[in-house]
Each structure stands twice: as structure tokens, then as C-alpha cells.
Specification:
Layout lengths: L2 H10 L4 H23 L5 H4 L2 H16 L5 H33 L26 E6 L3 E2 L10 E6 L4 E10 L3 E16 L6 E11 L10 E6 L5 E10 L10 E10 L18 E7 L9 E6 L5 E9 L3 E9 L1 E5 L1
Antiparallel strand pairs: 1-14, 2-13, 3-12, 4-5, 4-7, 5-6, 8-9, 8-11, 9-10, 12-13
The structure holds calcium ion (2 copies).
Amino acid sequence: MSRLARHTKGALAGYSTVVLAARLLALIAASVPVAMACSFYAPSTEDYARPRQLEGMGGANGQGGDSGVGASGNGGGSAGLAGEGTVSEAGAGGEAGEAGGTGGGAPCAPAPERCNGVDDDCDNIIDEGCPTGFLRASTTKETSLGDSTGGTTFADLCANDELIVGLQLGFSGWLYQLTGICQRYSLAVNTQLTPWKYSVAFEATRLLPSHPASTNGALQQVSCAAGMVLVGVHVYEQYGNAAHTGNPYITGLSISCAAPTFDPSATNPQLTWAGAVELGPFIDSSFNASEALRKDQLLSNGRLVVGLHGSAGFWVDNVGLTSSSVQVLIK
Ligand SMILES: [Ca+2]
Ligand SMILES: [Ca+2]
């Protein structure tokens, strides 16, 4: 039944023809602004959640009726009914909104927290106990290799989010320049798997300062395979005579590489590695295997190379690794 017909039916009961005519006129006068007001109003989803605002509109319509003449009192009352009708319609909308709210806020059923982007255990924290990044610990200068003398010391560090992944060597009879190669690393997350799988991602590389700063030596970069980082260095020293007197020189060099991994469920997870692979030796024409003395610096598991140190003058006197451990940050 239309609003106007509904109001007319209610208004007809118990009135004479004259009174009815006057009341009908009052009803029409009162209903027009209500209909106009409603025609401008199209409830939105947000309005469904605010039925009080709609009640206010109904009240305003009723006041409009009071300002009329004659049967203004009745008109006001009818307009009030019309306003109530609007509120009733708005109330139906409000119920629909509540139904939607119930669907979105289903009771949380606690389950063991997993790394999946969801608050499984219902403590309002998403993925607590899951990896969020890496943090390098303090650094240690490992024993340097090489017995040549006369150079000045140097020490260079990669940035906190970088690891040494290789060396740039400058040979000219023996090692005339050394440069570290740093590579950025970060936490990678595969969200296609459940639970999410975490790993180490590698990005851009850059060179540390060279020692000495300039060289006539032939440059070559020796780097670990993709996904692997430096965990050791091995130098070959040669003396200029069979008695091994005087100053020795570094005529060859090898590097050891390993792939850093981590177990997020460990008590204090950190980057670890196993099964180092040696690359080299990288040598110059003066290298003589029968004369060369090998010296090794292989880090222990959990230690990674984050810088180089040593000494150099006209050539490289000795080579040292600067190591650190890398903690896996947990939320
Ligand atoms: Ca949680
Ligand atoms: Ca989770």
C-alpha cells in the first residue's frame, strides 16, 4: 500500500464528509514535503548503520505539518506517521547492516600460529614468531694471511645489509691489488606456499675500496655462484728462493663459498651454511705449485664475511677476512 493511501485509510475513520475533505487536503499538504524529502534521499550502506539520522528526518517532517492551518494538528500527526514510516524503512536497512557485520566478525577459532598472514591463534597479532628481516652482529677481524711486510693496513666493511660474495684481484707477477665485492641481501617470502617459505634474496653488488688504490695489474673478478657467499680465503705464498728467505709474495688465491640458509623455527635463528665449495686457485704466471705455500682461513659455520682487512703498499702484503654472524629477526 502506498504511503498516501495508507494515510488516507487511517484518516477516513470516524469523520464527517466535510471534516474528511479538510483532513484529506491537510494530508496531501503534509505528504508532499515528505515525499519530496524522501525522493532526495537514497540510503547508502553507511546510512544503514545510522538509523538515528533517519529518525531525525521524520521529526523534521512532522514539524512541517504543525506550521499548517486549520487541521494543522491532524496534519502534523499524519506527517509524524509518515516520518515513522520512513524510520521503519530505515530500520529494515539497519537490520541488513547488522547481518553483514555478523558475517565479517565471525568468532575467531584459535589454532597454532603459522606464517600465513593471518592471526591464527586469535591474539590480535598476525604471524608472531615469523621472520621479519636480518640483523648483522658485531664484526671480528680474522687472522690475515701473508707474510710480506712494508705495507699499510686497511679495513673495509660492507653495509649492514651486504655480504662479501667475491674478490677482485689485480695480478702482475703476484697480487698487486685486492678489492672486496659486496652484495645486498634481504629476506624473501614465498606467499604461494602455506605456511609461507622464507629464504635469502640477493640483489645489487658493489666494490669496496681497492688496496692499493691503483694498479697496473690485470683485473679479474672471482665471485661465488648465485646464492652463495664468501666463507673462506686461501692464499699461496712464494719466496724468491728455495731457502724461503726474504719477502714472500702472494702468487695465487682461492675462495670458499657456501649458500646461507636459516631455520625460522630455531631457538635463535641465524644464517648458517654447510658444505663450502672452493673456487681457484686464481694465479699469475709466476705461480709455481711446487714452491707455493698454501695458507687457509675458512670460517666456522654461522660466520660470514662482511669485510676485508690486511695491508698493502705497492702490492698486497696480506689478506684478512672480517666476519660476523647474521641474526634472523622474529616478530
Ligand atoms: Ca596471532
Ligand atoms: Ca599466522
